[in-house]
Specification:
By secondary structure, the chain is an alpha/beta fold. It has 21 helices and seven strands. Helix 4 runs antiparallel to helix 5 and helix 7 packs parallel to helix 9.
């Protein structure tokens, strides 16, 4: 088999692997709280409401905008019609496209380096798990990988065209999530060092050559600002959105309880840990990244792509690690950089002796097999287990059961009207998702007057005692799970409960 044919066949295998891992039982995992809040924003846009950016709570508009054509193509045009599969398809598509981004580096890292990086991206448990979730990170990662390639190209060959392409990608990143700024901070020193290490740059030519970057940089900034402003202002119809997009860096409030130590991401991704009968680790990617750096270090003129990716990856990890607020999905952009860097180890394959080639290839294949095994378990039967290191604050399996049970109640022959439904308390997501097919639902921070007459009440933990005092005589108390370590209490009016029990006995 020729090398060209082998490469094509391998790429086909990687695509099949990527799709299989991301699509299998896509709808099975209960909706995460963050997915449900994003779905609500999407539903409002499906209903024709104008987009309004909230600088205190929500990220950019691009996720919901990119989901609109998917929802409409599946004839889902309202909050009640939205399905889990529709929500997550956009993340799957973005994740698949990320797998192809190493092709943008093919000239710098060679066909085998691009293949290796793609295989690592396709099988990484972190990437697979969150490519199956309706959150901003999959789209942000795709745009970051496009922007990263463009910024690197700009550092090597400055031009207005590449400056505009870089600005477009960065602007779209900004329109996706405010954390795009961290990537900018990581790419700047990487690009600066690559420029400084160019063979043509000596002390006499550094400043004159730097002028070549001035106009492309201006085009980059203008394009990025214009692109981001367009989306945040809803097509320049409301410039307040663009102002609020900048304000978000000064007023954004993170949810408490997500503060973690400096070494959290190292432990999550690299340090082996045995849980649920599996040793969880993606140390292969870290090891190959170190090998790529070592290969580059012994070269008289290091590969600028390796240099750029090494600096960018390290800077990403340092910045994210120094920020107290930490969640696993925040690592998707840095980890995609790490996968690219790891793939660079195979750019040196033609220069290695036969034995070294075999060892490196066997290391990759063994590691890929184990990563795939972890991905299958992490996104399959263990997807919702809080002991799964990638399952962060998962929704309880009780949540979809509540929805099914309420529909069974509504279907009873002599059932009274189940509306209105009251939700008492705060931090109740993703409960609204599972109540979306019911007509009248009210949300209150504390119990309301006349609550004893309502057929169904959901009480969050902080309001459980207050509801218990009011509803103890009129309703039956049914504790249920909502999120990991967070319960919700369902109060069902006694007449409905008795009807259900009578029907069940029959």
């Amino acid at each position: 088999m020729s090398q060209r044919l082998l490469i094509i066949v391998t790429w086909i295998g990687i695509v099949i692997l990527s799709l299989t891992l991301r699509l299998q039982n896509l709808e099975k995992r209960p909706i995460h709280a963050d997915e449900a809040t994003g779905a609500r924003i999407l539903a409002r846009q499906l209903a024709g409401e104008d987009y309004q950016f909230d600088p205190q709570h929500f990220h950019g508009p691009l996720l919901s905008l990119s989901s609109l054509p998917i929802a409409r193509s599946r004839s889902e045009t309202s909050w009640s019609e939205l399905s889990t599969t529709t929500l997550r398809l956009g993340a799957v598509i973005a994740g698949l496209l990320v797998v192809f981004t190493p092709l943008l580096w093919r000239r710098s890292i060679g066909p085998w380096g691009a293949l290796a990086a793609a295989a690592l991206l396709a099988s990484s448990p972190l990437m697979v798990y969150y490519n199956r979730m309706y959150i901003h990170e999959s789209l942000l990662t795709l745009l970051a990988m496009l922007a990263c390639a463009a910024v690197f190209r700009l550092s090597q060959q400055p031009s207005k065209r590449i400056g505009i392409a870089s600005g477009l990608c960065i602007g779209l990143m900004f329109a996706t999530k405010e954390t795009f700024a961290i990537s900018i901070l990581a790419w700047l020193p990487a690009a600066g060092l690559c420029y400084w290490r160019q063979p043509t740059n000596d002390a006499r030519h550094l400043c004159p050559n730097l002028r070549l970057y001035l106009l492309p940089s201006v085009f980059l900034v203008i394009t990025a600002a214009f692109t981001a402003a367009y989306f945040y202002s809803d097509g320049f119809r409301s410039m307040q959105g663009s102002i609020d997009a900048v304000r978000t860096y000064f007023v954004y409030e993170t949810t408490a309880g997500h503060e973690k130590g400096l070494g959290y991401y190292f432990e999550l991704l690299l340090w082996p840990k045995q849980q649920l009968g599996i040793w969880w680790t993606e140390v292969l990617i870290g090891l190959l990244a170190l090998i790529a750096i070592a290969f580059a270090a012994v070269k008289r003129v290091p590969n600028p792509a390796v240099l750029f990716l090494a600096i960018a990856t390290v800077c990403h990890f340092i910045i994210y690690s120094c920020i107290g607020y930490k969640t696993p999905w925040l690592m998707m952009v840095p980890w995609a950089h790490a996968c690219l860097l790891a793939g660079c180890a195979f750019s040196y394959l033609p220069d290695l002796k036969t034995r070294s080639r075999i060892i490196l290839t066997l290391l990759l294949l063994t590691g890929l097999a184990y990563q795939t095994k972890q991905s299958i378990h992490a996104s399959g039967r263990l997807a919702n287990d809080s002991r799964n290191p990638y399952a962060y604050v998962p929704t309880s399996t009780d949540a979809p059961k509540i929805e099914r049970w309420l529909h069974e109640l509504r279907a009873l022959a002599d059932a009274p009207v189940l509306s209105p439904i009251a939700v008492i308390g705060q931090e109740y997501w993703p409960l609204p998702w599972y109540l979306r097919t019911f007509e009248t639902i009210g949300y209150w921070p504390t119990p309301i007057q006349g609550i004893t007459d309502l057929p169904i009440i959901f009480a969050m933990p902080a309001q459980d005692q207050a509801c218990d005092d009011l509803l103890g005589a009129s309703h039956t108390k049914l504790p249920r799970g909502l999120r990991a370590n967070v319960a919700v209490t369902l109060y069902l009016r006694n007449d409905i409960w008795q009807l259900w029990m009578h029907t069940d006995e029959q």
